């Protein structure tokens, strides 16, 4: 008898992360295809009250580990909690957030298995869960399956559809015993220092406006900021401008920066080097603005404007303000 | 301070990736192989820690084919590591848990206070061998650090997360994986390259591991819709916005 699909659901500041709800929705689809139950696992301090909200996403059981010791993320302790139901599961899923990518490795380690990191597609074939994931920075895709035991996988945010399972669902919410031992609390987050400006994080943004060396200098960055504000998006940058010190590390998109897949990605004055594409080529719609018609970015862009960004970006900002403003 | 860094030899980040006829591996012809870029940060941090501690030894471990000896000798030992171990594997492309098992066995066989990894290897993009190895060692682990503050055997690690930076306190022995921002890796200089020729590089078979994640196939990336140039200059802006609204429906 194949085991359940177990999905770890992450919360931040008292709310469940959208990307976790995407993972839970995908868990519902996989559990249905396998004909097994779906379990959601919630961890933290004071999270029990909210746990029932997850029932709308279709879990057959919500498991809650609620304890003041779990107020801050401690990878080994949290992994111990997820690994318990995970050991008998068909699949253990979570979103590939900073926390999820770390937790997934520890859960896999405790289950003596490997992790399918940052998957972009899951399917069921012959009673097995098969995951598709980018390798070589998105230059190839690997399909993988667990040869024994559960498939432990993290799912790339913004790729899987968030879908409520419909109204009127019921499911029990159950408290889990906390089995983590003291040794599991040797690496505990003491605090999270918020970035200076309270900006939207790139990996969670639905729209991203990125700039590159074509901006010529940090003094012109306002063109990116204005466009981002007009479309309600976050700002990103190429490595060239981060290395030049125009923009902070956390805005870098690409192989050595962040992997993003927003609905809409603007690449402005970015050539489209393979390492930049690695971080954004799974975006749904890509728009490029570049004065060089042969720039490689136009090979991946859905829509392009060939032209001087100093003239195109202000016009684009004005047009969006008119429309959305 | 006994420091270990685990490194991998990988295709250069700009390499063109061609899938072999078996549909499960890449064709290495014409591909340049380098030290995994994130492992440069790991090795650099090991060097700085040793310089700060004033004593100790840095051992570098790579699991891979015979070619990995070149990366160990000409890059990592030349940067300044003291000794290297090549765990030779017979099968190409090991499963992450099998890799971690072999690395953990080697780490356990020697004195070690701290082990550095890269946050991910840019071939399999697995981003997990540090966590898996730490679990096998039973040591605490912080992944993707951009800053480490040392105070004897106590360490404060900084790790970027969405919207901020996590601050984690822990004690040695510990495992860290490094990412961009941690340091600026040095290039080997002539003196380093000469010195590396005389440094010990031990080769031995890797402990056989049991793969748990089966690779079914390797495929080309899904194709993107045909690119379209909407127009030239700012006159193209209204048409672009219309397309984003009415065709792509993203605005
Ligand atoms: C190991 C490794 C890892 C890397 N990781 C990353 C990474 O994570 N992210 C990343 O981005 N890069 C990464 N790179 C660097 C990458 O190879 C490129 O160097 C970088 O992406 C180039 O940035 P850019 O497009 O801003 O600059 P450029 O390549 O210089 O391109 C500038 C573009 O702006 C256009 N332009 C100039 N003026 C105008 C104008 N007035 N109007 C319109 N267009 C204009 C030009 O036509 C050109 O296409 C990595 C490289 C290596 C080796
Ligand atoms: N074959 C290997 N030999 C030595 N270290 C490795 C090997 N594979 C991975 N690592 C280490 O683990 C890190 C993460 O790799 P991965 O989890 O495969 O993305 C790398 O940056 C290396 O530090």
Please give the structural blueprint.
The complex is a heterodimer of chains A (325) and B (251).
Chain A: E1 5-9, E2 11-12, E3 15-16, H1 18-34, E4 38-44, H2 48-51, E5 61-66, H3 75-86, E6 91-95, H4 98-110, E7 115-119, E8 121-125, E9 128-135, E10 140-146, E11 151-155, E12 173-175, E13 188-194, E14 207-211, H5 222-231, E15 234-237, H6 239-243, E16 264-268, H7 274-280, E17 285-290, H8 297-300, E18 303-306, H9 309-324
Parallel strand pairs in A: 1-4, 1-6, 4-5, 5-12, 6-11, 7-11, 14-15, 14-16, 16-17, 17-18
Antiparallel strand pairs in A: 2-3, 8-9, 9-10
Helix pairs in contact in A: 3-4, 5-9
Chain B: E1 2-7, E2 9-11, E3 33-35, H1 37-53, E4 57-64, H2 68-79, E5 83-88, H3 96-108, E6 114-118, H4 129-137, E7 141-145, E8 147-151, E9 154-161, E10 164-171, E11 174-178, H5 190-196, E12 201-205, E13 213-219, E14 228-232, H6 237-247
Parallel strand pairs in B: 1-4, 1-6, 4-5, 5-12, 6-11, 7-11
Antiparallel strand pairs in B: 2-3, 8-9, 9-10
Helix pairs in contact in B: 2-5, 3-4
The complex binds flavin-adenine dinucleotide (FAD) and adenosine monophosphate.
Structure commentary:
The complex is a heterodimer of chains A (325) and B (251). Chain A is α/β, with parallel strands linked by helices and 325 residues long. Helix content of chain A is 27%, strand content 28%. In chain A, a hairpin with a 2-residue loop joins β2 (11-12) and β3 (15-16). Chain B has 251 residues and is α/β, with parallel strands linked by helices. Chain B has one domain: Rossmann fold (3-Layer(aba) Sandwich), CATH 3.40.50. In chain B, 27% of the residues lie in helices and 31% in strands. Chain B has a seven-stranded parallel β-sheet with strand order 7-11-6-1-4-5-12, sandwiched between helices. The model of chain B has no long low-confidence stretch (mean pLDDT 95). The chains are: A alpha/beta (325), B alpha/beta (251). At the A-B interface, α3, α4, β7, β9 and β10 of A face α3, α4, β7, β9 and β10 of B. β10 of chain A pairs antiparallel with β13 of chain B. Residues 6-8, 36, 38-39, 42, 61-64, 96, 99, 103, 117-118, 120-121, 124, 126-130 of chain B line the site of adenosine monophosphate.
